Amino acid sequence: MTILKATSEEVIVGSEERHMAVWLSLQKHPDNLYTLSTRVNLHTGIGRAYMQVIKPFHCKIAVYSIESAFKAGRLS
Question: Fewer C-beta neighbours within 10 Å, C or N terminus of the chain?
């Protein structure tokens, strides 16, 4: 993914492929609370099929990714 915007309050990354485009926003709030938002535009049947498989696990994957980034020192 490519970093599209990075400030002390928010990081936005994105990726566009033939089958789908994906954007993620991580916003930092007071008291070290965070909001993760995702946006996906599906372009093909393969993209739609992939989302059907991954959708039930999306929340767990997102939480794991953020926790890993904190542990690795990529977020503070």
Answer: C
Place of tokens 């542990």: 71
Strand partners, 35: 27
Domain ranges (residues) in the chain: 2-71
Q: What is the pLDDT along the chain (76 residues), one digit of tens a residue?
A: 899 999 999 999 999 999 999 999 999 999 888 898 999 999 999 999 999 999 889 888 888 888 888 899 877 6
User: In angstroms, what CA-CA distances link 48 with 22, 25, 38?
Assistant: 13, 21, 16
Let me know if domain 2-71 sits in CATH 3.10.450: yes
